[in-house]
Amino acid sequence: MRETYGKLLPGMRLSDLAGKLIVIEGTDGVGRSSQINLLKPWLEELGHAVLDTGMTRSLLAGEGIRRAKEGNNLGRVTQSLFYATDFVDRLENEIVPALRAGFIVLTDRYIYSLMARAIVRGMDAEWIRSIFSVALKPDAVFYLRLGIDQLVPRVVFSRGFDYWESGMDLYPGQDMYDSFCNYQAALIAEFDRLSQEFKFETVDATADARAVFGHLKSKILHLLEADSRSEFLSRLSAKTIESPARNFTELLAAAERTASSNSDLAAAPVSARGSNGNGHAHYFQK
């Protein structure tokens, strides 16, 4: 059964959230959105229903956050509470319903980014953690990590420096480049600490996007296959409990049939089994 980090939203049930919650984390410019855009269609091609979400996409608070940030004068407490409102609204009205319907939820950043940003800005860590204790524990957190030396060129040659992502509210009067480096270095240090605490899967984001995508695919496939095996064993166990004698007899008979079939095949001459011309048995050749 799913768990939260401490609290439960009123009326929320955790027993029927059958989907998967997969988080892509990391600082600005590491390629999170690119990976989400690659993972979503790939998972849909495999037959999974997918919801992708991320910060400031809440109908309740998303637009308000964007407008509040335009004036570059949003206080740190107000900012933290605004983002918490955005998260809880998406949790209650997007993430939980999607998980209940069996979707895979891909989220571009989660509570860890929100906590890191607030803590770097000097907010009380215990208070911030209590706010986000309603969050569901994800099935996997992939932390895309880049050092400052690799991060700066990516940002410079993509969209350029942003007031908030450069931490200009923390370092007023500084050159935006220096402010960006100081702020992102502090964020990376906080992410590294959170990674140890919350057991992130750290991914080297210095590789090209396709290589990172291949790594993520492998990890996610392993997660989904492990879940399928667990579900099969759970159903098998439930059936055995419902009718132990019958199921045990059936399982024993199936095992004996398999053993007999293998024994007969092993005893048959190669000519009877068929050959591929290279001396290797070709069992299904007519």
Task: Tell me the span between the first and last alpha carbons.
Answer: 49 Å
Helix proportion: 55-70%
Largest sheet: 5 strands, parallel
**What is the CATH first-level class name of the domain at 20-208?**
Alpha Beta
Annotation field: number of helices: 10
What is the string of helix and strand elements? EHEHHEHHEHHEHHH
CATH structural fold name of the domain at 20-208: Rossmann fold
Please tell me what the overall shape is: globular
Structural class label: alpha/beta
Radius of gyration: 25 Å
Biggest β-sheet: strands ordered side by side in the sheet: 2-3-1-4-5
Question: How much of the polypeptide forms β-strand, as a percent range?
Answer: 5-15%
Question: Which stretches are poorly predicted, pLDDT < 50 over at least 5 residues?
Answer: 261-286
CATH architecture of the domain at 20-208: 3-Layer(aba) Sandwich
Q: What is the number of beta strands?
A: 5
CATH homology superfamily of the domain at 20-208 = P-loop containing nucleotide triphosphate hydrolases
- Oligomeric state, counting identical vs distinct chains: single chain
Mean pLDDT equals 85
